[in-house]
Amino acid sequence: MSRTHPVQVIAVTGGKGGVGKTSVAINLSVSLAQLGRRVALLDADLGLANVDVLLGLTPKRTLEDVLNGRCDLLEVMITGPAGIRVIPSSSGTQRMAQLGPHENAGLIHAFSEISSQIDVLIVDTAAGISDSVVSFVRAAQEVLLVVCDEPSSITDAYALIKLLNRDYGMTRFRVLANQARTLQEGQALFNKLTQAADRFLDVTLQYVGAIPYDETMRKAIQRQKAVVEAAPRSKAALAFKALAEKVDRWPLASTPRGHLEFFVEQLVQADEAG
Ligand SMILES: Nc1ncnc2c1ncn2[C@@H]1O[C@H](COP(=O)(O)OP(=O)(O)OP(=O)(O)O)[C@@H](O)[C@H]1O
Ligand SMILES: [Mg+2]
To answer: What letters, b where the CB count within 10 A reaches 16 and e where it falls short, cover 168-193?
Structure first.
């Protein structure tokens, strides 16, 4: 398999439901595309897939069709705002862990085909710490944990970090505060998480910043639009643009980890081990 074109793979996760993972995944994808990156957004919420719904897209085919060999990934990708390529899932798609060897080979092939066409792959994960979430997160180069100011958000994010660290040796995580009422609130949330992590785990958490609480987000969602497109000058949109500029400066792994094939090989290996 050729390993030529590096692709940054970023998993957006967080443990708790409803913190804004999908909103962050969508708006980060669109903002990166607006900076000129070629972005694919994989809806890895296999249970309650909804990236397409939130963007008003109507996919004819989904990742499931690729896994079943009914079509290839290029046929599944649909173009969203700013030219992002969305890879939709169908709600109720079987877990990655249930794929057979033939489907695994198909998946690797499918992703290697698109790797020359994209620079960044954003992976929107489901809530919780299921095997499926863990396998997508482990395979990514960068893990962006979305947290908000609710006690269960911090405890759920901590539980996810702990699992990924203790069981899978992962040590580096990025943290984004969402729905922050003030800038201080975001920083305080990060401090809380770091204090717990520093005490009990051997991990490095890096604070990426905060996305403010902004009613415009909900209004944009009602219109099935990304807020960065629907209201580009809103507080939330400006914060997403700043986030994308930061993310765009994250170094790209020069190891095999920096390649899309690695991401898929990891996914598949996680299944075989699991
Ligand atoms: N910064 C924000 N300001 C205001 N509302 C927000 C913000 N971020 C997200 N929301 C709202 O919170 C709700 C949940 O967001 P979203 O679906 O992105 O969360 P999620 O973490 O992906 O949820 P799930 O765990 O169900 O997948 C949505 O109605 C969204 O519009
Ligand atoms: Mg979601």
So the answer is: eebeebbbbbbbbeeeebbeebbebb
**Is the CB–ligand 1 distance for residue 214 below 6 Å?**
yes
- Can you tell me which atom of ligand 1 is nearest the CA of 19? 21
Is any atom of ligand 1 closer than 6 Å to the C-beta of 80? no
- Which numbered atom of ligand 1 lies nearest the CA of 54? 17
Residue holding tokens 């069981």? 167
Report yes or no: 15 and 153 within 8 Å, Cβ to Cβ: yes
In short, whether 221's Cβ falls inside 6 Å of ligand 1 is yes
pLDDT exceeds cutoff 80 at 91: no
Q: Measured between alpha carbons, how far is 206 from 22 in angstroms, rounded to an integer?
A: 21
Which residue among 21, 23, 48, 124 is best mutated to probe the pocket of ligand 1, counting the most ligand atoms within 8 A of its Cβ? 23
Pairing status of strand 142-147 against strand 204-212 = unpaired
The distance from CA 27 to its chain's CA centroid, rounded to whole angstroms, is 11
* Widest pairwise Cα distance in the chain: 50
Mapped onto helix, strand or coil, the DSSP state of residue 150 is coil
| pLDDT digit string, tens, across residues 233-252 | 999 999 999 999 999 999 98
Model pTM above 0.90: yes
Residue 1 pLDDT: 45
